[in-house]
Specification:
The structure holds three protein chains of three kinds. Chain A is an alpha/beta fold. Chain A is built from eleven helices and ten strands. In chain A, the strands form two sheets. Chain A has a six-stranded mixed β-sheet, with helices on both faces. A four-stranded antiparallel β-sheet of chain A has the order 2-1-4-5, with helices on one face. In chain A, α3 (about 95-105) packs parallel to α5 (about 140-155) and α4 (about 110-125) crosses α5. Chain A is globular and about 60 Å long. Chain B contains eight helices and two strands; from the N terminus they run ααββαααααα. Chain B has helices spanning about 5-20, 30-50, 65-90, 95-105, 110-135, 145-150, 155-175, 195-220; strands at about 55-60, 60-65. Chain C is of the alpha/beta class. Helices cover about 40% and strands about 20% of the residues of chain C. Chain C contains 13 helices and ten strands. In chain C, the strands form two sheets. Chain C has a six-stranded mixed β-sheet with strand order 6-7-8-3-9-10, sandwiched between helices. A four-stranded antiparallel β-sheet of chain C has the order 2-1-4-5, covered by helices on one side. In chain C, a hairpin with an 8-residue loop joins β1 and β2 (about 30-40). The longest helix of chain C has 18 residues, at about 190-205. Chain C is globular. The chains are: A alpha/beta, B mainly alpha, C alpha/beta. Chains in contact: A-B, A-C, B-C. At the B-C interface, α5 and α7 of B face α3, α4, α5 and α7 of C.
């Protein structure tokens, strides 16, 4: 089930001449939760498109469990890598939420009760089971986004990539996505997310990769990446560390990338902060 | 010389205009676009012209005739003349100026808006189409397999495109209303197109001249080329 | 920053909804079911609530575009600058209350070569004279500090910049009120910051009455004066923005309180001593306010 991802020296230049990736090396052990952050144009979207074959490296290679993605069709790689795009309206075309979610797994060859069960599981996971027969365009934008997520979840791929999953979501939606990520990881699947919401990233992912100008400039746990020694690097990518990380440092409470970490650090301290 | 005057005169005008405005290079795609049509005209007319007797050479069961060839060349020349005059028009007339002028002359703002935004919509739609293809391929839609499998892709690819366009229209309509698009006032012109008396004179002469030629031709006074 | 609202007569610049119920065309239930609110000149009212609570509908109704441009049935009264929107034409409402939506790209006319032309779109539509148009365009660009974007191609702007251009083009019609529907939802942190600053400036400098619906409560805490919480088309809480965002019921409503509120509760729940709590929250206030404490106008 769990698949290891190896990105080896991947460079990519668009046909027009823009160099989007300038040599990226990344190893994702199976079943990890990893977030990719960076400004628009840093190469995040370009990088994840290499994982499912939508883009092919102009140099270097991508290995899934040791097997090169070169020579495999995108439709074939979709069995291994599910990619949820940012805008759900670029994929919805069915008359009902059920039919929409069934599209992906059906393409992968699932049929009958097996298919229906996968669809049900996915709809339940995103909280849309009650709206199974609703027309997708009768759902609000944030629920359409969840529907798009369900349509990939139903494919039950070992690797799931999410592109800006929380934009447009209310607090309930964000919480649901966080629990979906946790469940995927518990099932041994690898989760990769692109996000500009650094609080969501720090709370949900165990590893953060920061990109700038087609390269990885920081790679580590949130507690490390969002800590003071890296603030200058983060500033160079026009990212601001999460508020609680800055607060933790200001209070001398160490590296506190999440609220939970900050509260624990302050609670653990017996003496007041100097 | 009967069949040649028309197209040759037009071509002369086109060549002069193109040289003066330096759009010669840009005309190339228009010329290239006419090649398939001209090739078929040449072939059909040269070999299959009905009733022609002056055979030049034979190719199997088909005979190339001098009459056929002449007709073919004339017809081809007419096609080129027509295509190039269209090219000159579109290459020397910025769309926005054309639309702005039409609006100033009273063509409704809705019509002008539709044409103007449709033209600019094209690159946006192309980009959107690319995103749709990517999203559906990521769901296992096979765009690289057999043609039978690719046909199944029509609905998942066209569906979001059409639905997206419809939703777009709804949102855009509201946004237009929020900018008082349906106000009854006459829209202010902010880029007046300069129009000089000599240009106006040329327009009138050309227009009247064309009408006169056609009338004389139909009346039989002038022989149509 | 002085508040010029005090110099302005009360009528004009005021947005009031009284007993408003609204139903979309062809719908069976009321999207808004009894809403009362009032926004004064120079003030910003935040609207919070879960998705599908009716926030977007509220913005459309406040601007008059529902029902004037989208149809549907309206009960109760919507007053823009003291005038009922009921008898107005859509283009008249547009000049009293502007509206901004989530998606920057569908709001641009798609027919303008430059941002300048785009912002001139509205004034041109109402047939203003050229000198007046120039003044309005330059005024709007200046109000949002985007004069430098004037020669740019609207199709090639970042999300945040496009939203500011859309806002400028609406402002060019000089509405006294503005309804902003999740204006930063599709934007990154930088874009969010730009729009947030613009909102503050519009209320302060132009004395606009602004209604903003948003999920980002941290942003609302910074830019809004008063707030209401919406659920199922009705107002379930109202007060100053601090009061509403502090309401413990908010979490149950699916609204995420701002960092200060969350932190205060989490620290208290963990049993962190009061002085440490106080120090932490004080430090948070200093950190969170851009460029230090910002005068609320």
């Amino acid at each position: 089930m769990s698949i290891r991802v190896d990105v080896e020296g991947v460079a990519f230049t668009y046909p027009g001449g823009t160099e989007a990736l300038a040599g990226v090396d990344l190893v994702i052990p199976p079943g990890r939760r990893i977030a990719i952050v960076g400004q628009n144009g840093s190469g995040k979207s370009t990088l994840v498109r290499h994982l499912n074959g939508l883009l092919r490296p102009t140099a270097g290679r991508v290995l899934l469990d040791g097997a090169d993605t070169a020579g495999r069709h995108v439709a074939d790689l979709a069995r291994t890598v599910g990619l949820v795009f940012q805008n759900p309206d670029r994929q919805l075309f069915s008359g009902s939420a059920r039919a929409e979610v069934a599209f992906g797994p059906r393409n992968l060859g699932r049929r009958g009760t097996d298919l229906e069960a996968a669809v049900d599981r996915a709809l339940v996971a995103v909280g849309l089971h009650g709206a199974a027969w609703t027309n997708p365009y009768d759902l609000g934008f944030s629920r359409r986004k969840l529907l798009a997520l369900a349509s990939i979840l139903a494919m039950e791929t070992p690797i799931v990539i999410l592109d800006e999953p929380t934009t447009g979501q209310d607090a309930g939606g964000v919480a649901r996505i966080q629990s979906i990520v946790a469940k995927l990881a518990a099932d041994g699947r690898t989760v990769v997310a692109i996000s500009h919401d650094l609080r969501f990233v720090a709370e949900t992912f165990e590893r953060v990769v920061v990109m700038r100008a087609g390269r990885i400039v920081l790679d580590g746990a949130p507690a490390q990446v969002f800590d003071a020694p890296n603030w200058e690097t983060l500033a160079s990518t026009y990212l601001e560390p999460p508020l609680v990380a800055r607060l933790g440092r200001a209070l001398g409470a160490g590296s506190t990338p999440t609220e939970t970490a900050l509260v624990e650090a302050l609670h653990a301290r017996r003496r007041p902060v100097p | 010389m009967r069949g040649w005057t028309g197209p040759l005169v037009v071509l002369a005008i086109v060549v002069v205009t193109a040289t003066v405005t330096r759009i010669g290079r840009a005309m190339r795609p228009f010329v290239l676009a006419t090649i398939p049509l001209i090739a078929s005209i040449l072939l059909v007319n040269t070999f299959l012209y009905p009733g022609a007797e002056d055979v030049l050479f034979r190719l199997g069961p088909l005979a190339a005739t001098g009459t056929g060839l002449t007709e073919a060349l004339q017809a081809g020349l007419r096609v080129v003349a027509f295509a190039l005059s269209v090219a000159v028009f579109s290459l020397t007339t910025p769309t926005d100026d054309l639309l702005a002028d039409l609006e100033r002359r009273g063509v409704g703002r809705r019509g002008v808006f539709v044409v103007g935004s449709a033209i600019r919509t094209i690159p946006r739609m192309a980009e959107r189409a690319g995103e749709i293809v990517e999203a559906q391929r990521a769901r296992g839609l096979d765009t690289e397999g057999s043609w039978l499998r690719r046909i199944r892709g029509i609905l998942p690819l066209a569906g979001p495109m059409i639905l997206g366009a419809v939703t777009d229209v709804e949102e855009r309509t509201v946004a237009l209303e929020a900018r008082a698009f349906s106000a009854p006032a006459r829209r202010t012109v902010i880029r007046p197109i300069p129009d000089s008396p000599p240009e106006r004179a040329v327009r009138w002469i050309a227009g009247l001249g064309a009408v006169t030629l056609v009338v004389l031709g139909i009346a039989g006074v002038l022989r149509l080329p | 920053m002085t508040n010029t609202a005090a110099d302005r007569p009360l009528e004009g610049g005021l947005l009031t909804l009284a007993g408003v119920r609204y139903q979309y065309a062809g719908a069976s239930d009321w999207a808004l079911d009894g809403v009362d609110l009032s926004v004064e000149a120079g003030r910003v009212l935040a609207v919070v609530g879960p998705n599908d609570a009716g926030k977007s509908t509220l913005a459309l109704v406040a601007s008059g575009l529902a029902p004037l441009a989208v149809g549907g049935r309206l009960e109760g009264s919507v007053l823009l600058g003291g005038h009922e929107t009921r008898g107005l034409a859509a283009h008249e409402a547009a000049q009293r209350c502007g509206i901004l939506f989530q998606n920057p790209s569908t709001q641009l006319s798609g027919t303008a070569h430059t941002v300048w032309e785009e912002v001139a779109f509205g004034p041109r539509n109402v047939g203003l004279g050229l000198a007046e148009i120039v003044e309005r365009v330059e005024g709007s660009l200046a109000a949002l500090r985007i004069e430098h974007l004037a020669p740019r191609d609207p199709a090639r702007l970042s999300g945040g910049q496009a939203q500011l251009v859309a806002l400028a083009s609406v402002l060019a019609l000089r509405p006294r009120c503005l309804a902003l529907d999740e204006p930063t939802s599709q934007l990154d942190p930088e874009g969010t910051r730009l729009v947030g600053e613009a909102i503050r400036r519009l209320a302060g400098d132009l004395g606009s009455a602004i209604l903003v619906t948003e999920h980002k409560t941290a942003l609302l805490e910074r830019v809004a004066d008063t707030a209401i919480a919406l659920r199922d088309g009705t107002v379930v809480a109202r007060g100053t923005v601090r009061e509403v965002l502090d309401d413990p019921e908010l979490v149950g409503l699916g609204v995420d309180p701002p960092p200060a509120v969350r932190l205060r509760r989490a620290l208290a729940a963990a049993g962190v001593p009061a002085d440490v709590r106080g120090r932490a929250l004080a430090a948070l206030t200093t950190l969170d306010a851009p460029g230090g404490a910002e005068a609320r106008g």
